[in-house]
Design goal:
Length: 309
């Protein structure tokens, strides 16, 4: 039972990180109606920016305080992601207002490849380290209940708490603030939102900036755990099944979908993998989504589309 809990907790913590990345997909889809394939590239670009700025800024400003240096690096990386959001709106999305969804989808694919290449040209293509002070030592829980306790990595626990707090804050922002309501109005109908005075360009800059902030936090957490490398972009795309499972338009769906996929991956890999040769963790989410879509095409929490003729 203790080993099962250990695996379950590990899956929940991984799932919360998936939810954080998936939230970036959902926010952009709700505001622009486009599935943003560039989200993985944004995670990689943000992580590269944070890693390199944390190396460059302290010597440049002659700072001995690591916390202050990391804070300035975070601010610089965040400003860079906001600038990227503004450029995406000005140079790409602003030119494609009211275009077909496939056109916007291809635009995000182009943005993805550009950010992959430009990020490595600007910041380098080596494996970089991000040290944000997350503790690496293990933590043993329920030692009085299970022999040896339940092993949980402190780094994973802290990362999951940070991700959960950010997910909750963004969900509240989207649901209860005037800007959040404007984002939902734009998501429902671009032309109707414009007709009542909601500036589409400003809303798109805001939502891409928020997605950039989410990508930065996710990139910092994954970079702290695994190092900043090209595989981060692929790792971020593991949130795709989470988005589809929860529903493309549902913020709660992104959260619950992440927890389902994270725990399912870990449990199936540990308890079923030995009997089928392993590797289940790689494809579990996609197979689960396929099965769900056969029954509920809009996902677990997505809005059901009704066409009246």
């Amino acid at each position: 039972m203790g080993f099962f809990l250990e695996t379950l907790i590990g899956g929940l913590m991984t799932g919360m990180l998936y939810s954080l990345v998936a939230l970036g997909f959902v926010l952009i889809f709700k505001a622009s109606g486009v599935f943003n394939f560039a989200q993985g590239a944004m995670v990689l670009f943000a992580a590269l920016a944070m890693a390199r700025f944390s190396e460059w800024i302290p010597p440049l400003l002659r700072l001995d305080n690591k916390f202050l240096g990391d804070l300035l690096a975070f601010v610089a990386a965040l400003l860079l992601m906001i600038a990227v959001a503004w450029l995406i709106e000005r140079l790409v999305l602003g030119k494609l207002v009211n275009q077909e969804g496939v056109t916007l989808l291809m635009a995000t694919l182009g943005i993805s490849y550009f950010m992959d290449g430009f990020g490595q040209t600007l910041f380098g293509s080596d494996i970089y380290k991000i040290d944000i002070g997350l503790p690496k030592d293990p933590l043993f829980l329920f030692e009085s209940v299970f022999q040896g306790g339940v092993l949980v990595g402190k780094e994973d626990l802290y990362a999951a708490v940070i991700a959960a707090a950010l997910v909750i804050a963004l969900a509240a922002f989207f649901q209860y603030t005037p800007t959040g309501r404007a984002l939902r109005a734009v998501a429902d109908d671009h032309q109707a939102a414009q007709s009542i005075g909601i500036p589409l360009s400003r809303v798109w800059v805001i939502v891409w900036s928020v997605a950039g902030f989410v990508a930065l936090v996710a990139g910092m957490i994954w970079g702290s755990k695994l190092g900043v490398q090209f595989s981060l972009a692929v790792l971020a795309l593991k949130a795709l099944p989470v988005v589809i499972l929860g529903g493309l338009t549902s913020v709660p769906g992104a959260i619950i979908g992440g927890l389902i996929v994270g725990t399912g991956e870990k449990l199936s890999e540990v308890f079923v993998g030995p009997y089928v040769g392993g590797g289940i963790e790689i494809w579990f989410g996609y197979v689960l989504v396929l099965l769900v879509l056969l029954v509920r095409p809009q996902g677990l929490f997505g809005e059901k589309i009704i066409d009246r003729v």
